[in-house]
Amino acid sequence: MPRFVVFVGPRGSGKTTLGHALGRVLDAPVYDTDRMVEDLAGEPLSRLWEREGEEAFRAVESRALETLLTLSPGVVSTGGGIVLRQENRQNLRRLGYVIYLHVPEEQLLSRLASGSERRPRLRQGVSLEEEVRQVILERDPLYREVADRVLSVGGASIATTLEEILSVLRPLSPTIGRIP
Ligand SMILES: Nc1ncnc2c1ncn2[C@@H]1O[C@H](COP(=O)(O)OP(=O)(O)O)[C@@H](O)[C@H]1O
Ligand SMILES: O=C(O)C1=C[C@@H](OP(=O)(O)O)[C@@H](O)[C@H](O)C1
Ligand SMILES: [Mg+2]
């Protein structure tokens, strides 16, 4: 697999879930920049964020992304805010084929509201609904800027979305590697 397949998109769009699923099917290494940040920082993401704030987290996130450029190609699940920095947008494009998982706001909201995982809030003093609205407004153009492909996957099951991803990747197999 000579190049990476990279998922970008907002929180709850399924980057982590689909990254693992795709890695299994392709028998390729799976990287999640959030887990790489935790390894580099030596503490859970939520604690780093709480203790040192978002900017400190972003600095480690950029280092994690730079590290990826030196690793064996595989599937990369990014954190939803990785596109905020220009240097990261450049590095994402260098890594390989970037897929933006586009999911309607209502669906993101219901996944985030029901998820058991602890995710730090991105906006203070507003409802989760307003946070999701603001964050999408700010980042949607940035996801589109880095994406080779925008996949609208709202409403589809994990299995159906995985099939759709595989059908997008198949024609690219000369640069991505063998796709089943
Ligand atoms: N069709 C779907 N595709 C991806 N995730 C889904 C889907 N339906 C429900 N989910 C759930 O939504 C959540 C997505 O979270 P996650 O994979 O952590 O997203 P991200 O890494 O983009 O924040 C998971 O709990 C997953 O089980
Ligand atoms: O959108 C964001 O700014 C963030 C998304 C999270 O990753 P997921 O998109 O995988 O939830 C994680 O990087 C951190 O909590 C910040
Ligand atoms: Mg994730």
From TrEMBL:
Mg(2+) binds at residue 16. It comes from the Bacteria. PROSITE patterns: SHIKIMATE_KINASE (PS01128). Pathway: Metabolic intermediate biosynthesis; chorismate biosynthesis; chorismate from D-erythrose 4-phosphate and phosphoenolpyruvate: step 5/7. ATP binds at residues 12-17, 119. It is found in: Cytoplasm. Catalyzes the specific phosphorylation of the 3-hydroxyl group of shikimic acid using ATP as a cosubstrate. Belongs to the shikimate kinase family. This is Shikimate kinase. It comes from Leptospirillum ferrodiazotrophum.
